[in-house]
Amino acid sequence: xxxxxxxxxxxxxxxxxxxxxxxxxxxxxxxxxxxxxxxxxxxxxxxxxxxxxxxxxxxxxxxxxxxxxxxxxxxxxxxxxxxxxxxxxxxxxxxxxxxxxxxxxxxxxxxxxxxxxxxxxxxxxxxxxxxxxxxxxxxxxxxxxxxxxxxxxxxxxxxxxxxxxxxxxxxxxxxxxxxxxxxxxxxxxxxxxxxxxxxxxxxxxxxxxxxxxxxxxxxxxxxxxxxxxxxxxxxxxxxxxxxxxxxxxxxxxx
Length: 254
Known about the structure:
254 residues
């Protein structure tokens, strides 16, 4: 019988074995603090250390504030309410502009809430990206699928940063390629929403009406719609006030 025993593994398995041998795993904060090479890509850097996490938290909160402040209806709310309540068909420009800006305002509100809630998750030490359904991360994937928060420390214990041969910087595997951050419907699941102390009527309104309507920006089919004026004004007064309470009344600093 010729050849060695046991036979050598296939080339791809051999390559993986060699790569694993020479891969540096940065499992603990001390390991990462002692790393002298380039930092990970910006998309996963928030899991590298608290400083990088705080930087992203500040960016997310600042962006949320900017988006809320840019909502046309909120900027011109008093003038719009006056025009809505006024008799007659002749309306001021702000009346018509609010309707045409409505889909864009919805997108801004949704994006602001998404940014704010992701900042809140990070500040509490939880993952804000979708986890892969791998062997190492299956329990955490199950937890996330159930709408529960996944601690960053638990994720890094299962899938630490790793610097592979010939790689420029450490990589974080275990996240769906992109990586993809959590969408608003998943952020509003009960297991996560209770962390933010969100008012239930607001959550339901966002989930059932405002979030689906964001798609109107791709296909604007209607103009001004018939509404019950006072109910409409009351509804948007609550939304404006709650967005201010949730986002603008809090500091952007972590």
